[in-house]
Amino acid sequence: MGRPDGRRLKTIPPFLKIIPYIMPRRYDAVNLISVDFPYDKVAAYIDDRKRRGQSISLMACILAAYIRTAAKYPEINRFVISKKIYARHGIWISFVTLKDNWSGEGERDETVSKLRFTGYETIDEISKIIDETIERNRNKRNMNSIDRLLKAIFATPLLPSAIVSLLKFLDKLGLLPRKIIEASPFHTSVFFTNMASIRAYPIYHHIYDFGSTGAFISLGMDINKRKAYRMKVSTDERLCNGSSYVRAMHYFFRNLRHPEFLETPPGSVNKDIH
Fold first, then answer.
1. Residue 269: what are its φ and ψ, rounded to 5°?
2. CB atoms within 10 A of CB 143
3. Do residues 224 and 52 touch, judged by C-beta distance below 8 A?
4. What burial class does residue 103 get, using C-beta atoms within 10 Å of its C-beta: 0-12 exposed, 13-18 middle, 19+ buried?
5. CA 49 to chain centre
6. Element (H, E) at 133
């Protein structure tokens, strides 16, 4: 019986197959890179869409570019559990949403949203889904599936540690229920945080050892320089070889420099090897 969120890859090269045994934990295998973000190109596209009466956010451009990249290069959408490499079913995006009604003092409420895509979506379709999700989750009274899962875990005192340990154990065995995996923000293709939205520098973010996060993208800005945006990317190097990552990242930034390419769906979505 296979996992509900992916299929095991058995024909990958032997050297790639041995890497998870050498680096069994995700934080052992994390690679970190800092890159210049092509803000001028993306901003010009956003302004052009605004003149046409169409609103597209910076976040939508980034996530649409990544979704299209994962559709073309499925090797970056793999994940590793219990030293085994899997091809993920679907392209999943997790991101934090800040709640409204904040007074400006104390801790601000937030939640995590998680969305699934096929890879055939256009930037307009992705933008609409993201905007609707953010708007729905901004309301402090609304609870999404992730909020409900966490509330259930912490409903009984002293049990959270045991429950989380059990979830980790079941995940390693491939027995974690589909509903929990689909609700968990840690079982995702990429986790995105827009630090620029709160006028903060980007950070090198860890990729959680629980779950299957393949990459973490952090967009931030130099608070002392106008429009000086940078991006920090953390990736799990066990998913594919370095040349595959480089090829995929070239395509990712090509999509960011030319977001208009994302207005039409791709001719096909590539399937990973068996």
1. -115, 120
2. 14
3. no
4. exposed
5. 25
6. helix 123-138
Residue 143, CA distances (Å) to 112, 117, 146 in order = 10, 21, 8
Q: Name the strands in the sheet holding 30-36, side by side, starting at the edge strand that comes first in the sequence.
A: 30-36, 229-236, 215-221, 190-194, 91-98, 110-117
Question: What does the alpha-carbon distance between residue 133 and residue 31 come to, in Å, rounded to a whole number?
Answer: 30
Three-state DSSP class for residue 137: helix
User: 189 and 215 in contact (C-beta within 8 Å)?
Assistant: yes
Angle at 107 between CA 106 and CA 113, to 5 degrees: 155
pLDDT in tens, the chain (274 residues): 689 999 999 999 999 999 999 999 998 999 999 999 999 999 999 999 999 999 999 999 999 999 999 999 999 999 999 999 999 999 999 998 877 766 566 667 778 899 999 999 999 999 999 999 988 887 776 777 777 777 777 777 777 888 889 999 999 999 999 999 998 999 999 999 999 888 899 999 999 989 999 999 999 998 787 778 999 999 999 999 999 999 999 999 999 999 999 999 999 999 999 9
Q: Which of 195, 189, 219, 222 is nearest to 207 (CA)?
A: 189
- Report in angstroms the alpha-carbon separations of 10 from 87, 111, 240, 274: 10, 37, 13, 6
What pTM did the predictor assign? Answer: 0.92
For the chain, which domains are there? 15-100+109-144+187-263 (3.30.559.10)
What the block records as the tokens of 144 is 């999404």
- Given the structure tokens 């990242």, which residue do they identify? 249
The DSSP line for 31-94 is EEEEEE--HHHHHHHHHHHHHTT----HHHHHHHHHHHHHHH-GGGGEEEETTEEEEESSEEEE
Q: Would the CA dihedral through 221, 34, 187, 267 be positive or negative?
A: positive
